[in-house]
């Protein structure tokens, strides 16, 4: 069964690298050029897993949409509602380039994102002015992304030790600074401190539920595994901190039952062993002269 699904997943990886309206990114070029994040990083291990990426990405957006200024900016200045698949592909490609892309390619992409963000301004329904390049907002977006991917991997693929979490946040910080997130947490303790500081800022909104409806219905995953998509959305809700779920009105009915959590964990563990030749992780390894299966056979950094 797994062998039959792999070609569809590989095709999905190729589509991710060629979203409409964007030039194709070749992760095998320039030969030998390192990425912004080192090949032996925790990030390179985590971002190769499509289950962790999907679940973590959805969880991150839930947290972003809980912040009123970020929520207004995302909903009024992106195509999430009108063309969610295109938007998700662009976002996914940006994440892949940030982690696996050659340093020169990633830096150029980030500069373009910063320029576009500089034009995004507005006012929330409560009358609060916002600017997409505000350090506080950028810090929240980068921190929630880091939390989402780390928590999804740790919960549904393999538990991450405290030292691995600290290393993950520390190694991602220099790239986050390039985006303008100058106060991004560099450790698990700093992340929890930021969450505590944001408690009074986060608030419920119908947009959170609209987003979840979009993610359940949008044809994001290949058709052969699309019935699993709704379960992954539930998995994302499940890893959102309990106090956030309570504040947003996300009840137990929005999360996972124990048997469903076990199923997602099996899928996450399986995905960690499936080598997709079109994936940015594999292509980046080839760029650096490493075997295609390097990330699939070497031990996770920090593990014996």
Structural summary, described in words:
The chain has helices at residues 2-17, 42-46, 50-65, 68-77, 84-100, 103-117, 135-156, 162-179, 188-197, 206-217, 229-239, 242-248, 258-271, 280-287, 294-297, and strands at 121-123, 129-131. The chain is an all-alpha fold. The protein has one domain (33-273). Strands 1-2 form a two-stranded antiparallel ribbon. A hairpin with a 5-residue loop joins strand 1 (121-123) and strand 2. Helix 3 packs antiparallel against helix 7 (135-156), helix 3 crosses helix 11 and helix 7 (135-156) packs antiparallel against helix 8 (162-179). It is globular. It starts with a helix and ends in a 7-residue tail after the last helix.
Short description:
This protein has helices spanning 2-17, 42-46, 50-65, 68-77, 84-100, 103-117, 135-156, 162-179, 188-197, 206-217, 229-239, 242-248, 258-271, 280-287, 294-297; strands at 121-123, 129-131. The chain has 304 residues and is mainly alpha-helical. The chain has one domain (33-273).
């Amino acid at each position: 069964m797994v062998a039959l699904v792999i070609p569809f997943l590989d095709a999905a990886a190729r589509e991710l690298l060629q979203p409409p309206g964007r030039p194709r990114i070749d992760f095998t070029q320039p030969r030998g050029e390192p990425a912004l994040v080192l090949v032996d990083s925790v990030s390179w291990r985590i971002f190769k897993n499509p289950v962790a990426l999907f679940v973590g990405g959805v969880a991150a957006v839930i947290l972003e949409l809980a912040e009123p200024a970020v929520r207004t900016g995302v909903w009024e200045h992106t195509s999430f509602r009108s063309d969610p698949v295109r938007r998700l592909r662009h976002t996914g490609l940006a994440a892949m380039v940030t982690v696996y892309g050659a340093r020169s390619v990633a830096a150029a992409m980030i500069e373009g994102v910063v320029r576009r963000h500089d034009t995004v301004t507005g006012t929330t329904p409560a009358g609060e002015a916002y600017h997409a390049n505000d350090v506080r907002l950028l810090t929240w977006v980068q921190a929630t992304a880091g939390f989402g991917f780390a928590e999804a991997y740790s919960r549904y693929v393999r538990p991450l030790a405290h030292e691995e979490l600290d290393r993950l946040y520390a190694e991602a910080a220099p790239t986050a600074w390039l985006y303008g997130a100058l106060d991004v947490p560099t450790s698990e303790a700093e992340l929890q401190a930021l969450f505590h500081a944001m408690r009074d800022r986060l608030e419920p909104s119908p947009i959170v539920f609209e987003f979840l409806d979009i993610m359940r219905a949008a044809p994001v995953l290949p058709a052969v595994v699309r019935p699993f998509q709704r379960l992954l959305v539930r998995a994302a809700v499940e890893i959102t901190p309990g106090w956030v779920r309570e504040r947003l009105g996300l009840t137990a009915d929005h999360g996972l039952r124990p048997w469903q959590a076990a199923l997602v964990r099996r899928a996450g563990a399986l995905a960690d062993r499936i080598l997709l030749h079109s994936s940015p992780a594999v292509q980046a390894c080839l760029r650096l002269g490493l075997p295609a299966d390097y990330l699939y056979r070497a031990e996770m950094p920090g593990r014996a």
